[in-house]
Amino acid sequence: MASAEPLTALSRWYLYAIHGYFCEVMFTAAWEFVVNFNWKFPGVTSVWALFIYGTSILIVERMYLRLRGRCPLLVRCLIYTLWTYLWEFTTGFILRQFNACPWDYSQFDFDFMGLITLEYAVPWFCGALIMEQFIIRNTLRLRFDKDAEPGEPGGPPALANGHVKTD
C-alpha cells in the first residue's frame, strides 16, 4: 500500500486561499443582491484576498489544533472572530499605506477607520464556525500519496455497498 502523508502547510495554505477567495466573491455577490436587488450577482474581490485568507486560515488552523480539547466550540469561534477582526484591520491598514486596500467600511455605522465594522460580527462568527467544522477539519484529513503515478487509479480499496471489498 502506498504511503499517504498529510498535505504540506503550503498545500493547505493554497486550499485555504482559494476557499477564502471564492467565499469573498460569493459574499459580495449575495450582499449586492440583498442590498441593491442586483440580479447579475456581481461578486468582487482583490488578488490580496488570496494572501489574506490563506494566511489567516492557516493561523486559525494552528489555533484550532491547540484549542480543540481545551475550550468549547462557541468560545473558539469567538476567538477566531476576534482574530479575524485583528487580521482584517492589520492587513487593511498595511494595504492602505500603499493605496491598495480593497475594502472600505466607512459607510457603515459601526466602522473603525473604515477598515473593520461591527455589522459583520455575525457573518464573521458564522464563517468561523464553518471554517473550523468543515474547511479546516476536512483539509487536515486530506492525504498526499507520493508513490501514486499521475493518471493511474489509486486511493483506498474499492468499495461495494459501503464496505471494503475483500476478494
Structure in words:
Helices cover 56% and strands 8% of the residues. It is built from 4 helices and 6 strands; from the N terminus they run E-H-H-H-E-E-H-E-E-E. A hairpin with a 3-residue loop joins strand 2 (111-112) and strand 3. Helix 1 (9-36) packs across helix 2 (48-67), helix 2 (48-67) runs antiparallel to helix 3 (73-97) and helix 3 packs across helix 4. The chain is globular and about 55 Å long. The two termini are 16 Å apart. The relative contact order is 0.15. The model has no long low-confidence stretch (mean pLDDT 90). It comes from Sciurus vulgaris. One of its GO terms (biological process) is response to bacterium. The chain crosses the membrane at residues 13-34, 46-65, 77-95, 115-136. Residues 148-167 are annotated as: Disordered.
Question: Can you tag this structure with a few keywords?
Answer:
167 residues; mainly alpha; two-stranded antiparallel sheet; globular; membrane
Number of helices: 4
* Assembly annotation: single chain
| Terminus-to-terminus distance | 16 Å
Tell me about the biggest sheet? 2 strands, antiparallel
Identify the overall geometry. globular
Q: Structural class given helices, strands, pairing?
A: mainly alpha
Number of DSSP strands?
6
Secondary-structure element order, N to C: EHHHEEHEEE
Q: Could you give a short description of this structure?
A:
The protein has 167 residues and is mainly alpha-helical. The protein contains 4 helices and 6 strands.
Q: Which helices and strands, and how do they pair?
A:
Blueprint: E1 4-6, H1 9-36, H2 48-67, H3 73-97, E2 111-112, E3 116-117, H4 121-141, E4 143-145, E5 159-160, E6 163-164
Antiparallel strand pairs: 1-4, 2-3, 5-6
Helix pairs in contact: 1-2, 1-4, 2-3, 3-4
Membrane topology: Multi-pass membrane protein
Pfam families: ABC_trans_CmpB (PF06541)
Transmembrane segments: 13-34, 46-65, 77-95, 115-136
